Amino acid sequence: MAIRPVLLFGDPRLRKICEPVKRLNDSRVVELRRDLYETLGHLQLSHHRGGGLAAPQIGALLQLVCIRTPQRTMFIHNPEILDKSKEKFEVWDFCFSAKAAFMARILRHRQITIHYSDEEGLEQSETFNDYMSELLQHELDHLMGTLFIDHITAPDSLIMAEEFSKKMAQA
Fold it and tell me: Are 110 and 87 in contact (CB under 8 A)?
């Protein structure tokens, strides 16, 4: 297990479309899951935020995402979005590949249904709402070479994370 460096915006690997994971029990994939989990935990402790990390963010161009929230820890392999709600909602998004240094308002679908393989290799179809929907859309975007900054419609919404925290404390 290792805490891996996170690729930063500007690294061309973040713009690549990832390959499917072919063998979930391959030792390299098992190690990658452990590294994603450990790296995400380290980032969460360092930045006091965040719930997911995608394999390309640590340099592995594979369709693998680690989710680590107080409610749930899961690994998602080869996800496919089956359905998106018409209803969208505005969220404040950020990215560890931008050192969690700034945030911006973007729109995300309130609900998504995805099909994926879990850590055991079992096929799953599951519907996610609100925070989990937003989190998964962000992480699944990484697998397609899309960054949250691609969704910014109001550039004046950009705010440094430090300033955002101050404003939230005053609210």
Answer: yes
**Taking the domains of the chain in order of start, what are their residue ranges?**
12-85+113-147
What tokens does 60 get?
Answer: 């592995």
Cα radius of gyration rounded to whole Å, the chain: 16
Q: Which two tokens stand for residue 164?
A: 């955002």
Residue 94: name the closest of 43, 144, 143, 55 by CA. 43
Q: In this predicted model, what pLDDT tens digit does every residue of 32-75 receive, in sequence order?
A: 999 999 999 999 999 999 999 999 999 999 999 999 999 999 99
DSSP assigned state of 57 = G
The third-level CATH classification (topology) of the domain covering 12-85+113-147 is: Peptide Deformylase (3.90.45)
CA dist., res. 9 & res. 13, Å (int): 9
Q: How many helices (H) and strands (E) does the chain have?
A: 3, 8
Residue recorded with tokens 């190690």? 31
Of residues 87, 139, 162, 163, which has the active-site annotation? 139
> pTM higher than 0.85, yes or no?
yes
Active site residue 162: no
Cβ neighbour number for residue 19 with a 10 Å cutoff: 13
Give the single-character DSSP code of 17: P
CA 32/CA 56 separation, integer angstroms:
11
